[in-house]
Amino acid sequence: MLGFILLSSGVLSVNAQKKEWHPGVLRHWAVGVGVGTNAGELEVATTLGHHFQLRAGVSMVPSSYSSISAPVDLELSSMFEEIEPRILNEIGVNPSLIPDEADMTLNLGFNHGKVLMDIYPFKHAAFRITAGAYFAETNRLVDVELQMPDEFTDALDKIADYEERVSDYVGEGGEPFMDGFLIEDGSLDAFLEVEKTVKPYIGIGLGRAVPKRRLGLNLDLGLMLHGTPELGSSNSYVRQALNEEMDSETKDLLDQVVAWPVVSLRLVWRLF
Prior knowledge:
The chain is α+β, with helices and mostly antiparallel strands. 24% of the residues lie in helices and 42% in strands. The protein is built from six helices and 13 strands. The strands form two sheets. Strands 1-2-3-6-7-10-11-13 form an eight-stranded antiparallel barrel. It has a five-stranded antiparallel β-sheet with strand order 4-5-8-9-12. The radius of gyration is 29 Å and the shape is elongated.
């Protein structure tokens, strides 16, 4: 008798769980947190029937990792070797007193919002096809700024003044020494940017963003299509130099990198 009661209770419990799952439009909701090649992820998802689920969220690099500052050795003092020592003495420039390092700040543009549709071809299977889009806050993937030491910018100013006084003096190559190299505040920048801030996404995955049980695990594999990356700078001199000095192999590589691989693992919790 006791066994019959326990068995009946188990059957009723299973039936209750089955009856609880009615994935109608906006009927069930879940939240998910995860990590992957897009850094940290936070999502909200809802059901649109047995075969469709909709999710939206953000993927972000923690601020402590999205901006990196460090000194970088550019051998700045060697840039004055083409100038005659007598001229350097005349204008008061001593290359040995110029630091070789500049302060570099590197920013990563990997923060995105996203809206994705999960399509489940099989009603009772966790396999899915996903399509949608990521929305970037900037089209720059990497942004680098170099702040030159004061000794370096002061030396450039003295050389510029000398060139104005002696119009027939020019640097190597027939151009004024480092003409246009720096912007007004003594810095220069360079960046790797892509064509799009709205990036289509296509992929596959396992697990439901809104699980039938209270907790679930999701795996995503896909591509975020951002277009062809290009090297650039807000300084026309630097931009021209970057593109002229880039070798053909690097150009070919950039032409082929039109998508970012997305691999993510998320823990999802159904709210109701």
